[in-house]
Amino acid sequence: MTAGVGIPVGASGGAVRLEPMRWWHVEAVAALEASIFDESPWSLEQFYAELAAPGRWLQVVVPDGDARSGSVLGYVDVAVAAPDADLMTIAIAPEVRGGGVGRWLLGQAMGAALAAGARTMFLEVRSDNPALNLYLSQSFEPLDVRRDYYGSGIDAVVMRRRLTLEQAPANVMPAVSS
Ligand SMILES: CC(C)(COP(=O)(O)OP(=O)(O)OC[C@H]1O[C@@H](n2cnc3c(N)ncnc32)[C@H](O)[C@@H]1OP(=O)(O)O)[C@@H](O)C(=O)NCCC(=O)NCCS
């Protein structure tokens, strides 16, 4: 399934859309992951394991109208076990950050989880990660703090947000494997 939703990508002037993550995306996804996360990036094997796991909504962000470029500009992984959903990971390539794609992708993930029966979404984020601002702006609330989980002074923040039909973003076509 393709979300079929194109949105502007800030200064680059391009547009992006979602595609379900498939095995042929994994190399590019893992390379992007390794370039983004200095500490403990997910390996190729971890992404393949996520692809094989039940109840996952795994999508890649690709340039709109450029089906064969092979470019991956972001990805998201949501694990749904209704009524709960876990945002396993979300990332946007540095060159397209700051243009609203991350917020859009999170909205799509929440909508997909909702459509798959989830009513609450959980996530965990480092206390020093600017992504915390994104989650707060999208009504996620801190639920628990694991002090020094990532080292001295760097906590793990567990966040939660209720998902309601009224808040469902438009244009969501979920593809959660079972
Ligand atoms: C988090 C991430 C997905 C956001 O993607 P993005 O496309 O840049 O996000 P947006 O442009 O939609 O920004 C949405 C909001 O996020 C927050 N935000 C994003 N980057 C930020 C930064 N560097 N500093 C402060 N706030 C930031 C802001 O609240 C922003 O809203 P605003 O522009 O209205 O102020 C992206 O920065 C990323 O991939 N980071 C590395 C991977 C990562 O840490 N993922 C989260 C793991 S828990």
How is this fold's topology laid out?
Blueprint: E1 7-8, E2 15-20, H1 26-36, H2 44-52, E3 56-63, E4 74-81, E5 84-92, H3 101-115, E6 120-126, H4 131-137, E7 141-146, E8 156-162
Parallel strand pairs: 5-6
Antiparallel strand pairs: 1-2, 2-3, 3-4, 4-5, 6-8, 7-8
This protein binds coenzyme A.
Largest beta sheet: what is the strand line-up? 1-2-3-4-5-6-8-7
Query: Which structural category fits the helices and strands?
Result: alpha+beta
Overall domain count: 1
Cα-to-Cα separation, first versus last residue? 15 Å
H-E order: EEHHEEEHEHEE
Tell me about the largest β-sheet.
8 strands, mixed
Mean pLDDT: 87
CATH class: Alpha Beta
Q: Tell me the overall shape.
A: globular
In CATH, the homologous superfamily goes by the name Gcn5-related N-acetyltransferase (GNAT)
Q: How much of the residues is beta strand, in percent?
A: 25-35%
Q: What is the CA-based Rg, rounded?
A: 16 Å
Polypeptide structure, described:
The protein is of the alpha+beta class and 178 residues long. It has a single domain, classed as Gcn5-related N-acetyltransferase (GNAT) (Aminopeptidase, 3-Layer(aba) Sandwich), CATH 3.40.630.30. It has helices at 26-36, 44-52, 101-115, 131-137; strands at 7-8, 15-20, 56-63, 74-81, 84-92, 120-126, 141-146, 156-162. The chain has an eight-stranded mixed β-sheet, sandwiched between helices. The longest helix is centred in the middle third of the chain and has 15 residues, at 101-115. The protein is globular, with a radius of gyration of 16 Å. Bound molecules: coenzyme A (COA). Coenzyme A binds at residues 36, 90-92, 97-103, 125, 129-131, 133-134, 137.
